[in-house]
Amino acid sequence: MQWMAVPRSCHTIHSLEFFLMHILGSRFMGMIPDMIASVEVMLKRWRNHEGKEIDTFQEFKVLTSEVISRTAFGSSYLEGQHIFDMIMNMIDIIYRNNYRISIPFIGKIFKSSDDIESENLEKRVRESIIKMMKKREEEATSGHLDGYGNDFFGLLLKAYHDPDNSKKISVDDLIDECKTIYVAGQETTTSLLSWTVLLLAICPDWQDKVRKEVLELIGQQNPSPDRMTKLKIMSMVINESLRLYAPSNYLARKVDKEVRLGNLILPANMEIYMSTLAHHYNPEIWGEDVHLFKPERFAEGVAKATNKSIATFFPFGMGPRTCLGFNYAIIEGKIALSMILQRYRFTLSPTYVHHPVHLLTVCPKRGIQVILQPL
Ligand code: HEM
Question: Where heme is bound, by residue (predicted)?
């Protein structure tokens, strides 16, 4: 799909900086009640599965899409969810056609049913976002809203209407940003939650340790920001899960101008892919037990875990293009895990088949089925 391959323009980076401020600044804390509300909706569904099997991968997909819809699109989150469903259909089409060889020119004349469906979805996503824009603009003009609203969508609309042309973003940028934020924010966090639940299901001692920490620090209350920062064992578990199952398999960069890297001369415009797996599974960094789930590696921080080579652990990327949603994802993950551990003990279901695949992120092709035991 073209919109995922297009490099970001300066305008888009400008809008992302808005979002960065939004999610890391004062408003970020305001999103926590929305995250908790979404987890509560999920846990309400789980009551029907107590003592039975549940596919947590599917559950986390729904949860993370609801969280991103609520936090990014605020009051319009139901419309946001509808757009998200269409984007997910487009992604399914990408998965299906991942290895299809397309013949130049012929592909423009003879379109497959997937090409037609994808174009149709793209058109409908665009129309829906434009409809949502119009609605917000009307609400802003009639004084029903403070500006265009304080959620991500409102900030994008503000940038779209910016009277300063050097800061203004185009409608295409705005639409691309909506799509990007869904894909960047949803698939990755689903992957993080799913693999962490798998690891805790097969390592009940760590599951007990994290639960104990949650119950000691948070009790049966809803998680609060100050308590979540104190969840040290959970942070160790999350880091180890991100090391073993980094949602993003590689980092991509393009060489700006010719540069020497060790013994190599890299020419300008060369594309470079850095494998997350190769670094996260390097025994020289992590030791011979590199394949084992050992959250205690991170007990004294990333520098100690990586033997002072902190740049070799990069689940969120690194440098100026590092993940903008880092805090958002960690907080969302901690809220969901805390609320699950407060209520359930879970074990791996006998139907589980280990089949990690790399599509947009590293995800479990056959789901992650666990059996839920209420506490
Ligand atoms: C566990 C969850 C997540 C992981 C592992 C993850 C990982 C990454 C990685 C590896 C990159 C590329 C960084 C680089 O090239 O150096 C990235 C970029 C990005 N992520 Fe995340 N991400 C996660 C969650 C999120 C969430 C929740 C959001 C938004 C709500 C988000 C928004 C973004 C954006 C906008 C970028 C592009 C930054 C840029 O190009 O300047 N991510 N993420």
Answer: 323
Q: CB of 230 within 8 A of CB of 256?
A: no
Q: Mutation test of ligand 1: which of 188, 195, 253 has the most ligand atoms closer than 8 Å to its C-beta? A: 188
- Per-residue pLDDT reduced to its tens digit, 194-249: 999 999 999 999 999 999 999 999 999 999 988 888 999 999 999 999 999 999 99
CB 83 within 8 A of CB 178: yes
> Any known ligand binding at 363?
no
- Does residue 192's CB lie within 6 angstroms of at least one atom of ligand 1? yes
Q: Which residue has the tokens 């409809």?
A: 131
C-alpha to C-alpha distance for 225 and 239, rounded to whole angstroms: 19
User: Is the Cβ–Cβ distance between 363 and 187 less than 8 Å?
Assistant: yes
37 backbone dihedrals φ, ψ, rounded to 5° = -60, -40
**Domains along the chain?**
11-248+282-374 (1.10.630.10)
- Please report which residue ranges of the chain form alpha helices under DSSP H: 2-5, 10-24, 26-30, 32-46, 56-73, 77-96, 106-109, 113-141, 152-160, 171-202, 204-217, 225-228, 232-244, 276-280, 283-286, 301-305, 326-343
- With the most atoms of ligand 1 within 8 angstroms of its CB, the residue from 34, 237, 243, 323 to mutate is 323
Res 100 pLDDT > 70: no
| 8 A C-beta contact, residue 53 and residue 349 | yes
From the CB of 247, is ligand 1 less than 6 Å away? Answer: yes
Q: How large a percentage of the chain has pLDDT more than 90?
A: 53
Q: Is the dihedral of CA 48, 50, 54, 58 positive or negative?
A: positive
- Over residues 115-137, the pLDDT tens digits come to 888 888 889 989 988 988 998 89
**CA 370 to CA 362: how far, in whole Å?**
19
Nearest of 232, 229, 242, 228 to residue 306 by alpha carbon: 242
